[in-house]
Amino acid sequence: MRFEGKTAVITGGSSGIGRGTVDLFLREGATVVMGDIDDAEGTAMMSTMGDDFHFQKCDVTQEADIKALMDYAAEKTGGIDIVFNNAGAGGPRDPIDEISGDDWDFAMALLLKSVAMGIRYAAPHLKKRGGGAIVNTASICAFQAGYGPIAYSTAKAGVLHLTKVAAAELAQYKIRVNAICPGFIQTNIFAATLGANKEEALEINSILGQAAASVQPVARPGVANDIAEAAAYLASDAAGFVTGTHLLVDGGMLVGTQASWDPEIPGMLDAIVPEHLH
Ligand code: NAI
């Protein structure tokens, strides 16, 4: 019961990583206030998640919605101790020589400004509590090309720097700020990014589930609870000396090329130099 007596605000908790984190934090004794654009699912969760769960509709691209979520959480539960700025989606997929300015702005609003405003409007409440912990969801896309769209990846890299600078500014108030960089986690984000309907989403998720065990050294799909556990650590007192950094939770995806960990894939030299010269 790491979070007994604590209030955690979690965004994007109607699905995937956020949903897994809601489940874990409730099991660990937290009162959870969840904000999500998916009103139907959030409202449905109100009737199944118990008295320690509260939902408020929140579109994280809207500054006023984020402020309202933080204020509601503090008013409803007496204060805020933990914030998980997690809501997101793949956003526009156009390459840099095609993307429109409006699409770029939308991606930044959804994935970067949302986190900045989450910190902005949580901070006064955390200060009132004498401190707290903020965890932001970034991505492996923050480090390398090829894992997500350019606008998404750029925004996630921004989340990492935002995390560092905010941690420096807020340390004086005993507020820690950290980020998590998930690898390939089996959630609905891929089907949603492709604009799939329900039926297509089931098919896409099943295909991704089968492939997910073979795309990184740890030979199983990444699941929401893997990220929830990382969020719980960073939000807990066990991480009291950890701030301004990120935790990579990717099953080793970024350790190196597939040839570095998969015996079936020839190394670079083996692939280039003909067999008889080995
Ligand atoms: P998901 O699609 O399962 O869940 C995303 C949640 O965010 C949904 O509940 C959705 O309704 C909500 N949401 C979307 N737009 C919103 C908005 N404007 N306002 C409020 N809520 C909104 O996806 P997943 O995978 O759980 O994504 C969570 C976070 O993890 C995102 O920030 C994503 O970029 C990040 N991430 C996911 C990875 C993966 O492999 N699944 C990898 C790296 C990062």
Structure description:
The chain has 278 residues and is α/β, with parallel strands linked by helices. A 7-stranded parallel beta sheet has the order 3-2-1-4-5-6-7, with helices on both faces. Strand 5, helix 5 and strand 6 form a beta-alpha-beta unit. Helix 1 packs across helix 8 and helix 3 packs parallel to helix 4. The longest helix is centred in the middle third of the chain and has 28 residues. It binds 1,4-dihydronicotinamide adenine dinucleotide (NAI). 1,4-dihydronicotinamide adenine dinucleotide binds next to helix 1 and helix 6.
Per CATH, the class reads: Alpha Beta
The number of distinct structural domains comes to 1
CATH architecture, please? 3-Layer(aba) Sandwich
CATH superfamily: NAD(P)-binding Rossmann-like Domain
Uncertain stretches: none
Heterogens? 1,4-dihydronicotinamide adenine dinucleotide
Number of helices: 9
Alpha-carbon distance between the termini? 57 Å
Quickly list its features.
globular; 7 strands; 278 residues; Rossmann fold; alpha/beta; binds 1,4-dihydronicotinamide adenine dinucleotide
Compose a concise summary of this entry.
The protein has nine helices and seven strands. With 278 residues, it is an alpha/beta fold.
Topology:
Layout: E1 7-11, H1 16-27, E2 31-36, H2 39-46, E3 53-57, H3 63-77, E4 82-85, H4 101-128, E5 132-137, H5 150-170, E6 175-182, H6 189-193, H7 198-211, H8 224-235, E7 246-249, H9 268-272
Parallel strand pairs: 1-2, 1-4, 2-3, 4-5, 5-6, 6-7
Helix pairs in contact: 1-8, 3-4, 4-5
The structure holds 1,4-dihydronicotinamide adenine dinucleotide.
